[in-house]
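Quick one, tokens below. Sequence please?
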């Protein structure tokens, strides 16, 4: 089943003489990101670690939809806050990078550990114009992306799925599964919190 493309630069940017040199996004989008990057550099990144509410406020000022008690650490990076939707109790550790040219949903209690990477876009390498293409993504409630793990464009993590240390998810992960390796494969099931009830 083909992944849903949320953005194709070829449909939004006028063709140029050299497709490798033209921008992948509109001037408006680039100016918006410039403003966010200035804010990130001056106010977000420099804030003390315990000021999660301050960083959540800054993300919301740029259009992020965040539930209560989200903990984004000062060295975490969100490429486009207006394309970020989080439920309650989402955590993003230092060095986390969320590259989201289109919407990425993080459900309740999602944890992104240090230096993990959510990659929401790639390029169509079979098209001579090499356009950027971006995919919507969702990480289910209680999913955990461990330190230095990466999630490839358009890949979704089921509820409670774990992506192990340094692993790379190149396809959707089953709910309540533990996955490791490059590419990540399921090695066992994860116990559900309500399993003993």
């Amino acid at each position: 089943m083909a992944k849903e493309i949320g953005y194709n630069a070829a449909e939004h940017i006028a063709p140029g003489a050299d497709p490798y040199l033209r921008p992948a996004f509109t001037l408006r989008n680039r100016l918006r990101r410039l403003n966010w990057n200035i804010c990130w550099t001056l106010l977000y990144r420099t804030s003390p670690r315990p000021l999660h509410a301050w960083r959540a406020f800054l993300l919301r000022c740029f259009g992020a939809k965040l539930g209560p008690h989200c903990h984004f650490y000062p060295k975490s990076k969100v490429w486009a806050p207006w394309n970020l939707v989080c439920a309650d109790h989402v955590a993003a550790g230092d060095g986390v990078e969320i590259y989201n040219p289109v919407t990425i949903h993080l459900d309740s209690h999602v944890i992104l550990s240090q230096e993990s990477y959510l990659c929401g876009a790639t390029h169509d390498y079979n098209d001579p114009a090499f356009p950027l293409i971006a995919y919507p993504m969702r990480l289910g409630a209680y999913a955990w992306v461990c330190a230095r793990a990466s999630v490839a464009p358009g890949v979704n993590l089921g509820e409670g799925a774990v992506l192990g240390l340094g692993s790379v998810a190149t396809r959707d992960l089953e709910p309540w599964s533990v996955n490791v390796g490059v590419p990540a494969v399921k090695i066992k099931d994860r116990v559900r919190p309500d399993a003993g009830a």
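The chain has a mean pLDDT of 94. Helices lie at 27-44, 52-61.
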